[in-house]
Design a protein that fits this description.
It comes from Methyloversatilis universalis (strain ATCC BAA-1314 / DSM 25237 / JCM 13912 / CCUG 52030 / FAM5). It contains 8 helices and 26 strands. By secondary structure, the chain is α+β, with helices and mostly antiparallel strands. Helix 2 links the parallel strand 2 and strand 3. Helix 6 runs parallel beside helix 8.
Length: 365
């Protein structure tokens, strides 16, 4: 199976950061795939950056994106200009880089080794992104894709053997590449599973036959419920994913509370009969959920991973934990010495769904 190596470096000048990262990279012999995540400070120079990477490493296939911050082994930052690299040696013909310029065939292709799983990067300016993510999942036989949306303070190009904008790009793998993945939503469940009994578009009027706001206040509790604005930052609705396990919920944001009419509004469409559960999101819950996810994934593995990609919401890091390094340090604790690369995203992709405020871990075994 493949072997991976990763490194992360920070500097205001991208050639200097690249040289530092490559000097620290224990390059596998015959490495043939690279992941590169870079901060938006370098956004205007991405094409030059990718060409230089190819020239210095001899690796033709590069995928990645720009973002507000990068993640590496035991280190992460949304404040410093830098880049995170991971390179690997994979069996010939076991992966394919794709983009709008070089499209991926569907999972029902007649090819000998059809695509099984994909790591994807997406442009947030592209319309109907949740639908595109769901469609992308149909193009791989496992139905699973992972990755995230680019986010930047300026230009936010993605990388798929060159710089590009728009749509979805990335790399797809055949079943010859063993992969494991998990999602952490950074939340603790509050109360029981409920049912939406009346709603319209994204506005919920009744939950279990009661005013929706009453159910929200039950979840918030007496103290937090006295300040609706504050409660809305910590207590969030999770929507059941149709056709999935009863324990699986996609946590969404509250965008409005109407005390006069007992309504709540969220950032997603809802339907009568849909399952709903409230969750509490804060730093303690996020740490606990991250540790749970890492322990469950580690205990499920039959072999040690050789490399990892981690995509975290840009609202996590220092904004949630007070320090950008917290999640990277937890990864290092769970998988000591594991090569890691990743980035802070404007939306995270797991399975066939688009999430927010989450972390998505992909392991190469």
């Amino acid at each position: 199976m493949g072997r991976f190596a990763a490194s992360t470096a920070f500097h205001e000048d991208w050639p200097v950061a690249m040289d530092k990262a490559l000097a620290a990279l224990d390059m596998p012999a015959d490495a043939n795939l690279g992941f590169v995540y870079l901060t938006d400070h370098y956004g205007a120079d991405v094409q030059d950056l990718v060409e230089r990477l190819g020239s210095l490493t001899g690796i033709r296939n590069w995928v990645g994106t720009s973002s507000v911050g990068v993640i590496g082994r035991a280190i992460a930052s949304q404040e410093q200009p830098g880049l995170s690299l991971m390179v690997g040696r994979l069996p010939e013909g076991s992966f394919r880089v794709f983009s709008g310029r070089d499209r991926l065939p569907g999972a029902d292709t007649d090819a000998i080794d059809p695509p099984y799983f994909a790591v994807v990067h997406a442009d947030p300016a592209t319309p109907d992104m949740p639908d595109l993510v769901a469609d992308m999942a149909t193009k791989v036989s496992s139905g699973f894709v992972t990755g995230g949306l680019a986010i930047a303070r300026g230009q936010a190009p993605m990388i798929a053997n060159g710089a590009l904008h728009g749509g979805i790009s990335g790399v797809a793998f055949t079943e010859r590449v063993a992969i494991a993945t998990r999602l952490t939503q950074g939340c603790c469940a509050v109360g029981e599973v409920r049912t939406i009994t009346a709603c319209e578009n994204n506005i919920i009027s009744e939950i279990d036959g009661r005013p929706a706001l009453d159910a929200f206040l039950d979840a918030a509790g007496t103290s937090l419920g006295q300040d609706l604005r504050r409660a809305a930052r910590y207590i969030l609705p999770g929507l059941g994913v149709p056709g999935r396990d009863d324990a699986e919920f996609r946590v969404r944001n509250l965008i409005g509370l109407d005390p006069d009419n007992g309504l709540i509004a969220i950032n997603d469409a809802v339907e009568p009969g849909q399952r709903l559960r409230f969750f509490r999101r804060d730093a303690d819950c996020a740490r606990a959920d991250m540790r749970r996810m890492l322990a469950e994934l580690r205990d499920s593995l039959e072999q040690a991973p050789s490399g990892a990609l981690y995509v975290a919401c840009a609202a996590r890091g220092a904004h949630m934990f007070g320090d950008d390094n917290v999640e990277a340090a937890m990864l290092e604790e769970a998988f000591p010495g594991l090569p890691v690369a990743g980035f802070f995203a404007g939306g995270e992709i797991s399975h066939d769904q688009l999430y927010g405020y989450t972390g998505v871990l992909t392991l190469f075994l």
